[in-house]
Design brief:
- Its cofactor is Mg(2+).
- InterPro entries: GlnE, GlnE_rpt_dom, NT_sf, PII_UdlTrfase/GS_AdlTrfase.
- The protein is built from 45 helices and ten strands.
- The chain is mainly alpha-helical.
- The strands form two sheets. Strands 1, 2, 3, 4 and 5 form a five-stranded mixed beta sheet that branches. Strands 6, 7, 8, 9 and 10 form a five-stranded mixed beta sheet that branches.
- The longest helix is centred in the first third of the chain and has 30 residues.
- The radius of gyration is 41 Å and the shape is elongated.
- The N terminus and C terminus are likely disordered.
Amino acid sequence: MTTARQPLPAHLSRAGFTDARRAERLLDELLASMPGDPDAEDLTDALSRVADPDEALLGAVRLVEADPEVGLVLHEAGTARDRVLAVLGGSTALADHLVRHPEHVAVLAQTHPFGRGRALPEPGELTDRLVRAVEGLTDREGMDALRVAYRRELLLIAAADLVSEDPVELLPDVAAALADLACAALEAAVVLARAQTEGQEHCRFSVIGMGKTGGRELNYISDVDVVFLVGPAGEGDDEALAVGSRLATAVMRICSQSTGEGALWQVDAALRPEGKNGPLVRSLESHRGYYQRWASTWEFQALLKARHAAGDEELSREWLDLVQPMVWEASAREGFVENVQSMRRRVEEHVPPAEAPWQLKLGPGGLRDIEFSVQLLQLVHGRTDEELHSGTTLEALTALRDGGYVGRDDAGDLDAAYRFLRVLEHRIQLHRLRRTHLMPSTEADQRRLGRSLGERRDAAASLVQRWRAQQREVRRLHERLFYRPLLAAVAKLTSDEVRLSPEAARVRLSALGFRDPAGAMRHLESLTDGVSRRATIQRHLLPVMLGWFADGADPDAGLLAFRRISDTLGTTHWYLKMLRDEGSAAERLAHVLATSRYAVELLIKAPESVSLLGEATGLRPVSREALGARMLAAAERHDDPQDAFTGIRSVRAKELLRLVLADLVGEIDQPALRSALTELTDELLAAALGVATRAVVGDGQPAASMLIVGVGRLGGRELGYASDADLMFVYEPLEGAEGAAEQASEIIAALRKGLSGNGPDPTLELDASLRPEGKSGPLVRSFESYSVYYQRWSAGWESQALLRARPLAGDDDLAQRFTDLIQPLRWPDDGIDQAAVRDIRRLKARMEGERLPRGADPRTHFKLGLGGLTDVEWVVQLTQLQHAHEHDGLRTTGTLAALNAAVEASLISEEDASVLRRSWTLASRLRDAGVLWRGRPVESVPSDSREAEGVSRILGRPPGHGSELAEEWRRTARRCRHVVEQLLYGGPLHGTATGRLPGSGARPS
């Protein structure tokens, strides 16, 4: 027969006890041992507020057993009881200490243990109490007394921390108190060491706190990093060094050795010169020599947190005065920033894989990410800003925020994350007073940790979720701040250059090649004048950006453009923050502004588009579908047609600027650029056709279907910045509709007007001169009219023009029918005969004499000159007209695609094709570079040396190579012309009666 199971005490489970039956038994035992008539419900409620109610209750029972008087403290509700229970529920190690020393409960019960209004002790008080505890005692007695006194103070600090309503806010004060307590223990250890060291009176001796001890941000249990310093009290360095070495060894033993009262912590002197391989103690002069000659980058980073900890304070001050100036000049060393960055990566790589997911300190998104980011920013900018000279992470972070080196939001996020991660670390270590930086992996430990931070419902899961979110945010900010290109650039400047003083700025402007240093100074003064945050950030950015402007061909224009954009955007919340924080945005902007007037004009019209430089995918061309959707949305937002046209042109302006920026910074290759420019124009014309149709037809019924056909470079998907849009306009009357011709003409007129004139984007010239009958023919024709014309009167040049015809906007069915209509003309079934070939040759020869602009040099003109774009295109087009019926690859509207197909079909040799390809590509790139540099079309290599240099820089050539550009083009064009004369103007053609060109690139005899 089984006994019925008694129901669990539900109220104890709700109070946070995990073993309610055991808790009920222990609670009865505790209540029975307490005086008077204790309130069980009140005590249970008090226990429910601690991190681990089960451990707190067990600790209370043990404590009352050790000293029944403790029951008086637990009987009365109030601060005293809360402190005791919080310690018992937060630290089994301190609970054990209280059981060994129940007299310390009385210390916790003091109303104001640190004085009225003070949550934590003053540093001097801690030192006085610990030194008094050991004075006059022998070595062993002193070591025990030091440990007891130390833990007495640790209890008070832990209690204040654990009962705090906001432990995250209190964290800096707790960490500072722990560091001060460590220094007090070191001072007491020095007193004990001197008492047992012979000859100590002949030695000045001090202990320098390093790491978290030096920064007043120590953990509950951590190695205490130190450097030992000695000096002679009279004469005799050698004797002082020997005595100092014995003192240092004694101090380390006194703190680290385990006694009946345990140990304090390890004293770690590995940050001394030469590390563990170096002498334990050194003199001032020895330190001076080492840091001036041999010290590594990491050693200066370590010195950032150095401060006096114990011993001879005057000696410490002399040492600090010696080394601190070196700390703030360390970033000027060659490769300093890169060394610090690589050191952080090495630290991360050495984390054991099994620990990495649980690391609070060393892993990605951990404390080291924040500390390294802050320290690197301090060391780079601290050369010229003494406000950054703090060894305490949160103080330094605040100074970086106030100085404009870190954004307010970023600084706030890092501050909150650092406090939270440190509190986690503290609570984990406090539980057993063990040195660890690992997040617990068991649910029970996570639950206790979560409850200690105020989590109650699903404490374990909530805490881990919160920690992981902080981890991701810290990593994101670390990667943005720690690896920002601005840091390495600032580190390479001299202190005078960083300060940007007027005299230093004038000298530097002249040295950098600014043509008008006085004008540049006015821009600098305007940008940096005042005490606003905007001016402050500009003062950080401009010393570096001046060098980046100077890397462009026109630094004066770059600085002027930067001022104009900054005057417009400087008060926005994102602009300067982006330049300071987002990767290479500032360097890219400086390069663009000093390199391209075309880009400057686009940016001045839409300065907010600077944000593209800071976005991860900002310079990636958007898809054609996205372009179409954006233009459609822009058009539909407006009822007025002119506003709708402005809307779609604004979309084009932004996307054109995106492509220009990508081109200038090398984020897009030339084939992709030409394709993207073509798609942008296609979608603009499609959207414009829709707006124009809506404007003309309104709510009525359309009388005609419309089609826009692209020809020339647009049809070939080969647009450049200066390209016109060569077009033909087609309509077809809808059944039963009247006035189709008039309506179609009105629609095209509205389209041309909407896309002409000043707007947010550069005007797209619409050229319809390749339509039937050229400029003499009607602008808009019906499909039937095109059909009749091409069947009866079409000229040879029109068939050639149709080689690159491509429907790009309008009715799909009409587009297909038009394509079917022109196929036989551009790709005749039997090719073209020799008479047609002769006509093409004669026409080309006549054009060379008639179309070249007056005064233009045929040797240098990119389009119509000898070896220019037209030469290459006519060779390719003649090959298509002759052979497209045999080779499907030639049935393409693209010049280079058709040239490659001709090589594959053995119609042109690869050797000749390479020459043609090189000339066509270079001419296209030179035209585009000319537009980028001057802001308007350029059809030949500039004769002005400065302009030639500007074009050369855009092509990616090193500085000083602009003078070579003209000769390079002439050389390329001469070679191309030689090939063109052989392939286009060669002797009698060989092959079939259709006049096919010889295969394999053979030259006609």
